Amino acid sequence: MSGPQGSIRSMLALNLKRVRARRGLSISELSRRSRIGKATLSQLESGTGNPTIETVFSLSRVLEVPISDLLDTQRPAGLRVVRGEDVEVLSGEGVDLRPLQRIESGEAVFEVYDQQFRAGERRDSPGHVGIEHTVVQAGRLDVAVDGEEVELTAGDYVAFDAALPHSYAAAEGTVRSVLLLQYRTDQRLHPSTPHALLDADASPGA
């Protein structure tokens, strides 16, 4: 995940261009599918844009790749400690995310985030790739998935197909939680090679 070796902005700029090229999409076509303006996409690819959670999740959904394929720097080796204060925050509507780690195990890939919902605000998502897991650490969180609603408190867990429309709302005060996004390895363009380490002239993937 993004960290001291690369900011979210710089890693998204690097990886977005490569993923888009491997999908065979022009900026105009990606703009049409994602409903993100061409000027905004150009800024993101040049590293001058200001990505939000909504933007990154929309690109993940349209390009059909995990978030980490857009934000990852390199795969960790050995002991790794991630200090929350050192991780760049990716902010969006009602929520702040800190990307902590990507874990590959067998046919599954997990992305681990520290997730904080701002008091009195709501985050809506039309859906994206993967399975979403949330564990509430503090506060009261309202979760709606495809019309079904549930309330979570500290210690509660919820999981669902992230392709379904879903929303979160901090029902009472600020809510702290851990978010895990789960993918199949075949949902990644290059399951064994981090995008940040790929050569720019590598041949397109499937």
UniProtKB/TrEMBL annotation:
GO function terms (MF aspect): DNA binding; DNA-binding transcription factor activity
Superkingdom of the organism of origin: Bacteria
Gene Ontology CC entries for this record: cytosol
Coiled-coil parts of chain: none
Protein name stated in the entry: DNA-binding transcriptional regulator, XRE-family HTH domain
Coiled coil keyword on record: no
Stretches assigned to the HTH cro/C1-type domain: 16-70
Keywords: DNA-binding
Transmembrane parts of this sequence: none
A Pfam family it matches: HTH_3
